[in-house]
Design a protein that fits this description.
Elements lengths: L7 H25 L2 H22 L4 H19 L4 H5 L3 H26 L17 E7 L1 E2 L7 H15 L6 E9 L3 H11 L3 E8 L2 E8 L13 E4 L4 H9 L3 H16 L3 H13 L11 H14 L3 H14 L4 H13 L3 H14 L4 H13 L3 H14 L4 H13 L3 H14 L4 H13 L3 H14 L4 H13 L3 H14 L4 H15 L2 H14 L4 H13 L3 H14 L4 H13 L3 H14 L4 H13 L4 H14 L4 H13 L3 H14 L4 H13 L3 H14 L4 H11 L6 H14 L4 H14 L2 H14 L4 H14 L2 H14 L4 H13 L3 H14 L4 H13 L3 H14 L5 H13 L2 H15 L4 H15 L11
Parallel strand pairs: 1-3, 1-4, 2-4
Antiparallel strand pairs: 4-5, 5-6
Helix pairs in contact: 1-2, 1-5, 2-3, 2-5, 6-8, 9-10, 10-11, 11-12, 11-13, 12-13, 13-14, 13-15, 14-15, 15-16, 16-17, 17-18, 18-19, 19-20, 20-21, 21-22, 22-23, 23-24, 24-25, 25-26, 25-27, 26-27, 27-28, 28-29, 29-30, 30-31, 31-32, 31-33, 32-33, 33-34, 34-35, 35-36, 36-37, 37-38, 38-39, 39-40, ...
Length: about 950
């Protein structure tokens, strides 16, 4: 056996033997020679022992220093011996020799013990550079349990150094062989810590068997489920060992395994994917389970999931399950993939199975809660999160998820408790601050929301999502320039991210009203991620506002084709059908959404709104709203809505009871008091209304919207106009860049007859939001009232210039021309509106009324009949048709259409009822017979 392969145990016994022999020889020499020569011989031995230690046992600085000190001490005593008397004294000299020998042996034994308990510190230089993510692989000297001279570590080093060279463009890997032997995992970890190494390879040689062990201590990332050591059995000779290693021995596989997971947990997905593929290729057939291939399949499935390649992810996780069918983590992972594929039943089945396999698996409960949350079944989701938190009360991710569900249920105080607890557990987790900011946004506490999202950005300054979130807060505060700046920053951070372009598209669409800019960003988002249905949904709504109904429907349909189980997409398409008056199809889409998510309270609320407007049947709307409340009994928003429905049906006591209960649920929620104040205002109970407005402002004294609401209430109280103006001013003081507040104050000045201040505020609103067409419309109406026809027309022209595809604006300008008696210019604009949207009834209705005013009833009748063809359920059109027939003298046809109108709306229209009576008398007297068909 070579000297470098000797173990600490053999070394210690050898040293003991040398010391014993030395003592015996010195005893003999003391009888034969002068004691001075005995002392010199002893000191020479000390020098030799020290040199031996330096050569054989010095893998680090500490051992080297001890050995050198022993050698130097001996050398000094040899060159400068003490007096002869000191040595030759019969008693004292013998004690001196004994003392020197005892001290030497004690030092050696202590050194041996220290080496066994605590591995030595590394030499200067070999320590890994963690800041640069260097991977250091230590290859320890294999313990040889027989006389075989083969050294496996040398072969491993050759192969791994070759692998490190090949990896230099992807990962910094360094291989270092060390003379120490490692016999336990604990000592391997300690040695790894001393070198800041990531992987330690160690083992032993016993007869014809090489045992390799792998100890991983990740430095900057994480490695999960490293396989155990492996055994290579062969006729131990250099050729067999080299062949085994070069064929892709387990050590090379372990390196690929470790690099794959380090890259994965460090969010380097492309590197992780290549390392995983290499590792899987290196697994000998039949050893997949032994070498933890399931862990690699799971890891690769996570990467595929992040890339939305769910089919590949599912294939990988199924491969993992073949190797480990009862692994709860793998089963839960497949459930997550099914969830992302919108296969919720399959997902829930897997999560149930994972919990069955491991009843204390908190992640499975949390994942199952996620599915129920996505299905809108918040109560069941909450129960799952409760179990998960009980099992792992310090899991911040679960606390954050539970907080989200609580916020969706309107339980903001409990949601804040969870997020505050999460921050206590980990004050450096940016996402928790972001989540809390969303809660504060819902509570209209925008200052606190801004503080929290600012904290998130400070922790993760390169996270685009936080800039997107802050842009929404800036929008809520009317700080539109800052909002756009944050979105642009998000795009700069990740120019290939579809979400950021979609966010900016929404901003252009709804705030700037720059529809062409919005369309460009939606197109870019779809180019970057053509499988993301939400971008198609956003573009579809934009196209609705651009009155491009055909392309809007195509986008809605594409989104549903991409995610046919997404209930929200059906809900969004229903808006299209409502816009084109296809009300039955709109309800069908909502029904489909509810079928997909039968426990989603929001969907029942949406359907209630549909029934409220079409067919204007509160008897159908109320059961849906009751169902929403049954599913979320603590959500105040549903009580606000039901109170309004009760009020519509005359059940004021029930309406007020719902509003009071909403306040009881959330006594610090200003919105609840605003809702009740509005109710009191409608019922002329102004003192009670004012008390609620005041209390809301006491709760949120810096909420500009609350001052605006109170100002609009006070505006119509003759004796409170000064207070109203003070509130308008306070709202503007809080949000000086919000154009809407100036527009509202302009309306106040308009009411009190101060045209100068009104115009100044209209101008300021437009200056702040120059593309907001509502402001131009309001200013145009005001100019028209003042008789400033030229200025009014300038504003109307500007609106059409901004949105030339919107027929409503041509109709507005046509009505203006009609009032100015510019009949031909009015006719041209009406014609343009109809030409833009020939399949929408509003253009025909508007032109028909124009024809009626100018006495062209035959043309009016044609337009009205066309409108009825497009929207046969628009019962009010029968009255218009009846009027046209009446003025043309076709009384039978007029009577028929009036009756159809009364049958649909009831007999409250006294004017038409009287006209019906008149026509019935005329026809009875047969004063005039109408033709059966109007040509």
């Amino acid at each position: 056996m070579s000297r470098h392969n000797s173990g600490i145990t053999n070394t210690t016994s050898r040293l003991k033997k040398i010391a014993s022999q030395t003592i015996t020889r010195f005893s003999d020499l003391s009888q034969q020679l002068e004691l001075i020569w005995v002392n010199q011989a002893l000191l020479v031995a000390l020098v030799l022992v020290g040199l031996f230690l330096i050569i054989d046992l010095t893998p680090n600085v500490a051992d080297a220093v001890v050995a050198v000190l022993i050698a130097v001490s001996g050398l000094v005593l040899y060159l400068f011996p003490p007096s002869k008397k000191f040595v030759t004294d019969p008693v004292f000299g013998r004690k001196n020799v004994t003392f020197i020998l005892g001290t030497t042996l004690s030092c050696l034994l202590a050194l041996s013990l220290i080496r066994t308990l605590d591995p030595p510190a590394p030499l200067a230089g070999p320590v890994a550079n963690i800041r640069q993510h260097e991977v250091l692989v230590l290859i320890a000297t294999f313990e040889t349990m027989s006389g075989n001279e083969i050294e496996p570590q040398r072969e491993w080093q050759v192969v791994l150094e070759r692998a490190a060279e090949e990896l230099r463009d992807r990962q910094r890997v360094r291989v270092l062989s060390i003379p120490q032997m490692v016999t336990t995992q604990e000592s391997a970890k300690a040695l790894s810590d001393a070198y800041a190494a990531t992987l330690v390879i160690w083992g032993r040689v016993r007869g014809a068997v090489v045992e390799s062990q792998y100890t991983v201590t990740p430095r900057w990332s994480h490695v999960d489920d490293i396989p155990d050591g492996t055994i290579f059995q062969a006729n131990l000779n250099e050729f067999e060992l080299k062949r085994f290693v070069s064929d892709g021995g387990d050590t090379q596989y372990i390196l690929s395994f470790v690099l794959a997971q380090l890259a994965f947990f460090d969010n380097e997905d492309s590197n992780a994917l290549s390392f995983i593929n290499e590792a899987l290729a290196q697994i000998p057939e039949g050893r997949e389970a032994e070498l933890s291939a399931a862990s690699l399949y799971n890891t690769r499935s996570y990467i595929y999931q992040s890339n939305q390649d769910y089919i590949s992810a599912l294939n990988d996780v199924n491969a993992a399950m073949e190797l480990e069918p009862d692994n709860a983590i793998t089963v839960s992972n497949r459930g997550s993939i099914y969830q992302r594929m919108q296969l919720f039943e399959e997902a829930l089945a897997d999560f149930d199975r994972a919990i069955e396999l491991d009843p204390v698996f908190a992640t499975a409960y949390s994942n199952r809660g996620d599915v129920h949350s996505e299905l809108g079944d918040y109560q069941v989701a909450l129960s799952n999160y409760d179990i998960a938190v009980q099992l792992e009360p310090t899991r911040t991710d679960i606390l954050n998820r539970r907080a989200y569900v609580l916020s969706r249920m309107g339980e903001y105080s409990r949601a804040l408790e969870d997020l505050n607890r999460s921050i206590e557990l980990d004050s450096e987790l940016a996402w928790t601050y972001s989540s809390r900011a969303y809660i504060y946004e819902d509570l209209h506490d925008f200052q606190q929301a801004m503080h929290d999202v600012g904290r998130a950005i400070a922790l993760e300054p390169d996270n685009k999502d936080f800039y997107q979130q802050r842009s929404y807060i800036h929008r809520s505060l009317g700080e539109y320039d800052l909002a756009l700046m944050d979105i642009n920053t998000a795009i700069e951070l990740d120019p290939d991210d579809a979400d950021s372009f979609r966010t900016r598209a929404y901003f252009y669409h709804h705030i700037v009203l720059g529809y062409d800019l919005a369309l460009g960003d939606f197109n870019q988002a779809i180019t970057l991620d053509p499988l993301d249905g939400w971008s198609y949904i956003g573009r579809a709504h934009l196209r609705l506002d651009m009155f491009d109904f055909e392309l809007a429907l195509a986008d809605f349909n594409t989104a549903i084709e991409l995610q046919p189980n997404n209930a929200y997409f059906y809900r969004e398409r229903s808006h299209y059908y409502r816009a084109v008056l296809e009300n039955e199809l709109a309800v069908e889409d909502i029904n489909q959404a509810i079928e997909l998510q039968p426990n989603n309270a929001e969907l029942y609320s949406v359907r209630a709104d549909f029934y409220h407007t079409f067919p204007n049947d509160l008897a159908l709307a109320l059961p849906d709203l009751n169902k929403a409340i049954e599913l979320q009994p603590r959500n105040p928003r549903f009580y606000y809505k039901r109170a309004y429905y009760y009020e519509r049906t005359g059940d004021d006591d029930l309406a007020l009871a719902d509003l009071n209960y909403a306040i009881e649920l959330q006594p610090t929620n200003s919105s609840a008091y605003i809702e009740r104040a509005t109710y009191y205002h409608r019922h002329s109970e102004n003192e009670l209304a004012l008390a609620d407005f005041n209390h809301a402002i006491e709760l949120e004294p810096d909420n500009a919207d609350l001052y605006r609401s109170r100002a609009q209430f006070l505006q119509y109280q003759t004796n409170s106009r000064e207070l109203a103006l003070a509130d308008f001013n306070r709202a503007i003081e809080l949000q000086p860049n919000n154009g809407q507040f100036y527009r509202d104050r302009a309306g106040f000045f308009e009411d009190i007859g101060d045209s100068t201040l009104a115009i100044a505020d209209f101008d300021r609103a437009i200056e702040l939001q120059p593309n907001y067409v509502d402001f131009y419309q309001a200013r145009a109406r005001f100019h028209q009232r003042l008789g400033n026809n030229t200025l009014a027309l300038v504003d109307l022209d500007r609106i059409i210039e901004m949105q030339p595809y919107n027929p409503n604006f041509y109709i507005s300008r046509a009505n203006y021309f009609q009032q100015l008696n510019e009949i031909e210019r009015a006719r041209a604009d009406f014609d343009r509106a109809v030409a833009l949207q020939p399949n929408i009834p509003y253009g025909y209705e508007s032109r028909a009324r124009f024809y009626q005013v100018i006495g062209e009833y035959d043309l009016a009748l044609l337009d009205l009949r066309r409108a009825l063809e497009i929207s046969p359920s628009s019962s009010y059109l029968y009255r218009e048709v009846g009027d046209s027939y009446f003025h043309l003298g076709y009384y039978n046809e007029a009577l028929e259409n009036y009756r159809l109108y009364i049958a649909s709306v009831g007999s409250f229209d006294r004017y038409i009822v009287e006209r019906i009576d008149e026509l019935e008398e005329l026809t009875a007297a047969n004063r005039r017979h109408s033709r059966n068909v109007y040509p």
